[in-house]
Amino acid sequence: MVLAVKGRPHVTILVANLPAERDRRVIRECLSLEANGFDVTVIAPRGDRNLRILPGSRNTRLKPYPLIVTGSGVLSFAAEFVWSFLCITIRLFGELFRGRAHGVQVCNPPDIYFPLAVIWRALGRPWVFDHHDLCPEIYAARAGGSANRWVFRTLVLLEWLTLRTATAVFATNESFRENALQRGVRPEKLTVVRNGPAAHEIARGDSPADETAAEDVHTIAYVGVFGPQDNVEVAVLAAEELARRRSRRDWRMVLAGDGESMDALTKLAAERGLHDLVEFAGWLDGPSVDALLRTATVAIQPDLPTRMNDLSTMAKTVEYLGRGVPVVAVDLIETRRTAGEAARYLPTGSPAEFAEAIDELLDDAAQRDRMRGTGLDRFATMLAWEHQARQYVSVWRRLLARRLPEPATTPSPVEGRRASVVIAAHNEADVIGRCLDTLLADARDGEFDVTVVANGCTDGTARVAGGRPGVRVVELDVASKPAALNAGDGVAVGFPRVYLDADVVVTTESLRLLADAVGPSTDEPTGRPLAAVPRRALDLTRRPLPVRAYYAVHRHLPALRNGLFGRGAIALSAAGRDRFESFPDVLADDLFLDSLFEPAEKREVAGATSVVATPRHVDDLVRRLTRVRAGNAAMRAAAAHDTASEGVRDADRRSWLRDVVLPRPWLAPAAVCYVLITLTAAARARRADPGTWERDQSSREVPKPRIGGIDELVRTGDTHGSERR
Description:
Blueprint: E1 10-15, H1 24-35, E2 39-43, E3 61-62, H2 74-97, E4 103-107, H3 114-122, E5 127-131, H4 135-143, H5 149-164, E6 168-171, H6 174-182, E7 190-192, H7 209-215, E8 218-225, H8 233-245, E9 251-258, H9 262-271, E10 278-282, H10 286-293, E11 298-301, H11 307-311, H12 315-322, E12 327-330, H13 333-339, E13 343-346, H14 351-362, H15 365-383, H16 385-399, H17 406-409, E14 419-425, H18 432-439, E15 448-455, H19 461-466, E16 471-476, H20 481-491, E17 497-501, E18 504-506, H21 508-518, E19 531-539, H22 545-554, H23 559-562, E20 569-572, H24 574-577, H25 589-594, E21 602-613, H26 618-640, H27 655-661, H28 668-687, H29 710-715
Parallel strand pairs: 1-2, 1-4, 2-3, 4-5, 5-6, 6-7, 8-9, 8-11, 9-10, 11-12, 12-13, 14-15, 14-17, 15-16, 19-21
Antiparallel strand pairs: 17-20, 18-21, 19-20
Helix pairs in contact: 1-16, 4-5, 8-14, 12-15, 22-28, 26-28
């Protein structure tokens, strides 16, 4: 029998597509909640009939329901979802009547539980959406070219309703966050909580993979689901191709997992005569996964280059990196963001490409060692569950703060954590309050030194900023961003130094992550970057199609992955700030800072996000691009005349085609808008006065709440939600 500790807040987690004991993410979430003083119940399909408590937990209850209908087509899927909805509803209200379910977390697929969200929020209890999968994109991927547009639109609507009725949303990566923003979710409701194992799940000590390979055979591993969208058949066909390239005696392929494609895969391996090379290990528990990957030489990720996979973080990738296993994968956006240089990327993911890459890695121990080191470093510094758990638990602490005992709501002091923030603001009265309120929402007294430099303002910027406790305001008569940044530097106290634009949104936790990345002023610079930036999340809510099309291409440009520009927030260590005396009189301050540092001295910080509002109209977008191009041209001209750093990067005019559209041909229609808008801005920039500030006012408009919409409906009954802070 499982007993709750009296007075503890209780979270009920709903899962519809897997038994609770097989969902590794849900297991980690439950354990994190337990460790922080919460009681947990999981309602999910029945797996092991003997389980009443989640394996590995102290007292997480399992409330399983029988799954008597399973889907394979549209109608059978619909029947399965209706059955799941009924079972989950009955069990959830049972939790409510027993005095539990103070907060509810629903995990998709499917996206059908929004009616319960409305009821729960009307009861004054938070409802959190843990966004595991992009259901419309999954359907499109499984349907191939025969997707029914009405089914697809229905799935988009269901996803929209699920996102909009939630009190808070957990996004598994930045792409999911951007998708939610496009669906109209407010940035402050979104928190990125990535997938990945905890450090303690991985056995300590050096990986025995290379020693095992030297004595016996190399192991090529795959761990994950066997579904149509997972494309595991390519792994089998790659094994067949690899057998033609090298001896069959020095390697084997182990495919660990299960799913609807299992029968087809075993049949394919038998037909191709691969029974001696390809082993199907079945579904493995955590320790068994660890044992397999610690003896693996190479791991594979064969997911197809579809929109769904492009935007998804594969849990198996983080599992591979946590054990230092070099990865061979199809070139996908989120895979690159996750693995970095720890993976070998393939253009199309054909069996021949996989076989060639695996063959080369099996013969190149030095390259494997380099990739292993990179993977272990990325896991330890940004991907391990411990980093995600802090974000995850902090949301539940905020939502259920009234039910937590007093000690649990008081954050422990962190010695030496302090950053100074400089914000140059010219006529930013409409947005500076939002910027400061979000930045300091969870800050402790004296944790940050914040300076707002109101330069040449004719509105209430200084008054609004000065009304925030602890914010220093400096007023300049001249409208000049470089002068404002230099003035802010003159009065700012301490390092790291964060330069922030007034029209972006950065949370307190993101600011802390930026400060931690470059280190406090007492740290030596060795081993840390000198400059750090958050990841950029674009707010494209209610933007016209040409604007969204432009950014569909722009967001993939390689320069945005490794540069300091385009985020509206840059953190410098004391050593980094010593690289220059003062900001030059140019508009492109972010390009100037980018020019001062080598690639190894810069870092994009995982978990830290800046929400950048995009222009609301095409004319405003052109106006913004004109300013950017003119400023960049002036910066490059200054470098050419030795009045600025020689490290200013050259403009790559063909990158949009070479690096974005050709690898992603489905973006070709969007590329037409991108090219037309870019050429228009370039023509205007050539005629523009270099000192003119082509301001985009539309992105600074704070939208009024929609009366009568779903957000308004659920907000009226929400007493513990994120809106009531």
